[in-house]
Design a protein that fits this description.
mainly alpha; single chain; elongated
Length: 135
């Protein structure tokens, strides 16, 4: 199938298909006698996998590693399980950081509600963020 057909059927653009080829995610297909790319049907499955893996938060490098395992004849399930665990740990860490940031911002919002802008001095940058220094 030609690149335009593949792109339409997979829901990506032809530019994306070419990018995935250059990135080593999709093997370069054979060419027709007139020079057009002639993608095999399994390219649809591969593009669907790439899209699903990206939606799950995997990086292109991680996806490339999974595909390399599969292409070498190995089942990538153990590797994918490790990646999932790593991503879950990272998300939990980020959620914790976001909670701390939310708490800090709520405190600043309370301070903003209680601060009279007229009380700021020329030596203050912003009293909402930095408390006035006591000499």
């Amino acid at each position: 199938m030609r690149i335009g057909e593949l792109a339409t059927a997979s829901g990506v653009t032809t530019k994306t298909v070419r990018f995935y080829e250059q990135a080593g995610l999709v093997p370069e297909p054979p060419r027709t006698s007139s020079g057009y790319r002639d993608y095999p049907g399994e390219s649809l499955t591969r593009l669907a996998f790439i899209r699903d893996a990206q939606h799950a938060g995997l990086t292109l490098a991680e996806i490339r590693g999974i595909l390399a395992l599969r292409d070498s004849g190995q089942a990538p399930c153990d590797h994918v399980s490790e990646l999932i665990d790593e991503h879950l740990e990272e998300i939990d860490r980020r959620i914790s950081e976001l909670r701390k940031t939310r708490t800090a911002l709520r405190g600043l919002a309370e301070r903003a509600a209680d601060t009279d802008p007229a009380s700021c001095t020329d030596t203050d940058i912003c009293r909402l963020i930095s408390r006035p220094r006591v000499p």
